[in-house]
Structure formats: structure tokens, C-alpha cells
Amino acid sequence: MKLKPLASIVSFGLSKFGKREGLYSRELFYEAAQEAFERAPNLDPRRDVQALFIGQMSEYFEHQGHMGPLAADWVGLERVPAVRVENACASSGVALRCGLLAVKSGLYDVVMVGGVEKMTHIPTINNVEILTLASDNPFEQWNGVTFPGLYALMAVAHMERYGTTEEQLGMVAVKNHRNGSLNPKAHMQKQVTLEEVLSSKPVSWPLKLYDCSLITDGASCVILTRPDIARKFTDTPIDILGSGQAYDRLPLSERESLHSIPAAKLACREAYQMAGITAADVDLAEVHDCFTIAEIMAYEDLGFCGEGEGGKLIEEGVTELDGNIPVNPSGGLKAKGHPVGATGAAQVYEICLQLIGEAGPRQVKDAEVALTHNVGGSGATSVVHIFRRRG
Amino acid sequence: MESLEEKPTVEGFYKHCDRGELMFVECLSCGSKFAAPKAICGRCGSKNVKWRMSKGVGKLITYTVIHVPPLQFKDQAPYVVGIVELREGFKLLSLIRDVEPKNIQVGMELKVGFEKSNRGEWPYWGRYFFTPL
């Protein structure tokens, strides 16, 4: 394992996820930022934070672009460079990487990264329409596909090749709802049974309502510093040991594989190499379960099991809270919710809580090394980060 | 197979669809074939790419039945979308028509069809689709 971190997290915040009526995304970001500022009393946001990178997928949800300076202003930062990052559902995972690059370059000592999205105030069909923008317009959108549709195409390819079953997909939903029921900030805190998942109404066969993540409002943030000054702001810094990102072609039909996400494998390899670890060293992970099949593919792409063995892994309980590699202790996108631009940094928030031992009833025991896996669109962006609790 | 001298473009692809022609691009350097009419081969980086006309026959490699549609398809749900591998060796995402969802199978043979657009200009191209052979 590498001893020299890329950067360190000294604070983190998350708004309550859910249907947040009466609030704009800027106000949800304020909620997330307040938690982060309160967690680090030695940090003076106006004095110390030197840049903001904020993920937001689409300006169509709130008819609001130019989110960088807007978000900085509404959380009271001094007039710092403020940048909106857009990589579909991986926007704030990529924002974290931008912040990391900014600190690692030596240009800044302290930066804030985060993400926002406000989605529940518009009808489902408009959400479908806006989310679909992350696919290729003339070769996918124009031909009637949706995001559940793209992941359903991958699900059928996975089922055909490996014999993965609808029941195995459903088990991902059951696990993540169980975890979400232990997370007071999750959008849904209700457990579901496998029967309820399997009999829920079809969205894009074989994916049913309970195979899909939630349309959610929320915001997330993380404060990064140079590793050598992290102790000025907290006694429990979380070090970032590895960061990987890769792209693939937007049209699913042009990928090398339909039953995995090749860019996730590349991003993961880069992050593992940078951190000097292998999959066996990972104690827990927050992965991009926008649809249940996505979590099954993530197990394989991240090396938690062999190719085609993801269905078996969920069946054997390996990724449960008390399993060998707990995955999505927060409830994941499935139950915690998926305010798309906020998701990547929200995954990091959960990892931080877990690594400092403040995750309450969903606490994973003795966690030291953790991973986040954030995917944009149907896999054209993938970003993976590796974290370690500082001893 | 016919080779055309015009430069591959997205608009060109759909204008060919309007004439009942399904085009794809072949890289003359590495031989890879792709539907998206890019100027650079995605596999080897060569700019030596040429239009080809497909015979429009292939097989279904994966599919889904969409029940929750986007706005412009709201009157058509449920409908089938799949990825088709054409005999020439390129893949394309497409609507699959004239088949009951329960009768669809991965591996089934399909042929291309075209619908006329009443506009024929961006962004209202005439669509290609596939039906059972």
C-alpha cells in the first residue's frame, strides 16, 4: 500500500435525501455545506476554502445553469474560482477528481467539492427525458431508448451470457433497501421483500420499478486539503490513495462489452495501481447501483468476484453489511436515492462516516480501506477512488 | 460492397436512411466497422475510413421492452428496443417492430426498415428500425 496520499478529506456533509419540497438545489447544498463546516470548527470557509468544484448533471431540472458561482455564493465562500463539473451521473465523482488534481498540483491547499440535483418537482416523464440526454442523441435517444432501457439491454446480455436471474437482481434491491432503512438521510427507509421487487411493475423489462434507483433531491460535499496540513482541521483525516477515471463511447452498441462496463474496469485498475492495493484489500465499497444490474456488474468490474459471478456473490451474502465486502451500506442509489449530480460525493460521504466509525446501526466493523465507484450514463464515464483511514 | 466518396457525417447517415439506405463506416487501415460516422476510427485512430452500404440484415444480440417511455414515444409504450449486429459486423441500437414481446429472442434474424420523416431535417430524421426477417 502506498504511504503518500494524493490528498486528504478533512470534512464532509450531506443534505437529507428525498422529496425536498420548497427548496432549491442551492439551499440543499447549503444544508450539506453547513454539516461540513460544523464538522471542522478550525476551518473558516471564507478564509480557507480556495476553490469549489461542483457536480450538477442538468440545468433543465431547475432551469438553472452556471451552478459553480451560484453554489459558492449560497454557502458563503469568498470569491473563489467555482466550477461546475458535468459528467452525467458521475458529475460529482469527477468533481472530486478535479479537486484532487487541484490540490495535488500544489495550486491550492484547501478545496471544496460537491454535487447537487433537484429532481422531484417535475413529472417522471420529464425526468426520463432529461436523464436520457446523457445518451447519444442521433443513435440512442432518437431510437426510443431510456436509461432503464440501456441498463436493461446490459441486464439481458448478462443474463444470456452468465445465466444471471431476475431473482439475483432483486436481491440487490432487497439488500440496499435493508441498508437504507438504517440510514436516516436515505430517501426510502422502508425494507422490501424479494416478492415485492419481482412483482413490481415493469419499467424496462427485465428491470422493474424496484430494480431502479430513485428520483431524489439532494446535495453532498467534501473538503479536501494537502495531506500534510490535514491535521490542522481534523483529528481523523481520510486519505485518498488512488483515483482512476476512464471514458468509453457513448453509444452502448459501440462498446467492447455489453455485459460489463469496460471504462469502470480501466478506472478501477488505475486507482488500484495508484493506491498499491488489490480488490482483496478493500473493506467496503459504495458502488453505482443506478439499477440492480449495475451493482452486479460493479462486483465483477471491481474484481470482488470473477466475471459472471456477480449474481452468485449477492446470493451468498458476501456484500451484506456483515459480509466479507459490504457494498452500499448507505442504501446506495437504490434506497438512499440518486440526485444524479450529488451521487458521487454522497458515496464519499458514506465512506468517510464509515471510516471514522460514525455510521451508527449500519457501521461496518474494522473498516480501514474503502472504495467508491461512480458511473456516468450507461458507462461512458467511470471514476473510482480509494480511501484509507489515517492511523 | 459499394464504396461512396462522400465524407461520413451524422446528417449524411440519416439522409441515406431517408432514401432507404443503411450506411456504416469501414476503417481501411484496421478493418473495423462501426455505425457512428466518425472521421477517425475508434479502434486504430486512422482517418482512412469510408462509407459502406449495409444489406440491412443481422441478428438481435440483446433487447428490452420499454414500458416507461420518453416524451416523444409516450404513445407507443410498451415497445421493444434492441441492439442488432449486422452481417457486415457492426452494431446498431434500434426499435424492433412487428414482433410480440413474448416472441422475441436473442439471436433472432432481423432486417432493416425505414420510416419517412415528415421533416427530414435536424432533429427530425426519418428513423431506421428492424423487423423479423
Provide structural commentary:
The complex is a heterodimer of chains A (391) and B (133). Chain A has 391 residues and is of the alpha/beta class. Helix content of chain A is 34%, strand content 18%. In chain A, the strands form 2 sheets. In chain A, strands 3-2-4-7-1-8-11-10-9 form a 9-stranded mixed β-sheet, with helices on both faces. Chain A has a two-stranded antiparallel sheet with strand order 5-6. The longest helix of chain A is centred in the middle third of the chain and has 16 residues, at 147-162. Chain A is globular, with a radius of gyration of 19 Å. In chain A, 64% of the residues are buried. With 133 residues, chain B is mainly beta. Chain B is 7% helix and 37% strand. Chain B has one helix at 10-18; strands at residues 3-4, 23-27, 33-34, 49-53, 57-66, 79-86, 91-96, 109-114, 128-132. Chain B starts with a strand and ends with a strand. At the A-B interface, helix 5, helix 6 and strand 5 of A face helix 1, strand 5, strand 6 and strand 7 of B.
Task: Provide a brief overview of the structure.
Chain A is of the alpha/beta class.
Helix-strand topology string of chain A: EHHEHEHEHHHHEEEEHEHHHHEE
Query: How confident is the prediction overall: mean pLDDT of chain B?
Result: 92
Helicity level of chain B: under 10%
Oligomeric organization of the protein chains: heterodimer
